[in-house]
Amino acid sequence: MIKFFRKIRQKLLSENKFNRYLLYAIGEIVLVVIGILIALQINNWNENRKVNIIQQKYLTLLKHEALSNISGIDNETHKIKIMTEGQREIFRLIDASKDTLTEEYINQTFFKAFTTLVGYNYENSVLTEIKNSGELKNIKNDSIRMTLMALESYYENVKYQENAVNILQQKIIDHVGLNGDLRQVIESYDYYKYLGIGKTKAISKGNKYILEDAYFKNKMIEYLGVTINLTNIIYPTMKERYIDVMNRIDEEIDDKK
């Protein structure tokens, strides 16, 4: 092909047809430029196609991750609500006549309120991989990208609230341990068998009188407050954010079909 064009140029020059040669040369340059532009366009199309394939893969994985976290929040909320029933029952016991209360029932209520460690298993491996690999910039949908970036910071708020619940729970357990009888609490649900110890034979003053303890009652107010805030505000808001991510991803995937 190159020899063909060279022969044409040589022929035009030999025939002293400079104007025609000039037009031909310009035409040849235009063809070369067009060829380069077409090649660049094809290359850009291929690169965009690769980016879109990677983006679709990550969006699908992010959707599955969001679904997993929604399930985790639901399970954790259900677990904590059982704990909250125990917390509220303690306030009923505080207000009840102590003559009608049995140590066994008090201990069972304490067990229900104080033996749940809060914190669901947050899945963020896909989001972490996208951030660390620099692929976050290739998610072209600005709303999805900004939502993902905000998601991680809000999760810190979730963990802070979960930690607040666990800290207050531990403070109350420590107080009962110092001023009451934790062994009676674990014996109320036969937990001592799990620990591999026998039932205590020692005489104990029990835990009934702790219901009158000012420190105990004040910490219970805080404990119930942060727990309710977690299950009624923090978790639902986090769940809504995951649902929002899923909806935006579904819209983006549908647009690419």
From TrEMBL:
Organism domain of life: Bacteria
The residues that cross the membrane are: 21-42
Listed InterPro entries: DUF6090
* Keywords assigned: Membrane, Transmembrane, Transmembrane helix
Protein's recorded name: Uncharacterized protein
Q: Which organism is it from?
A: Aureibaculum algae
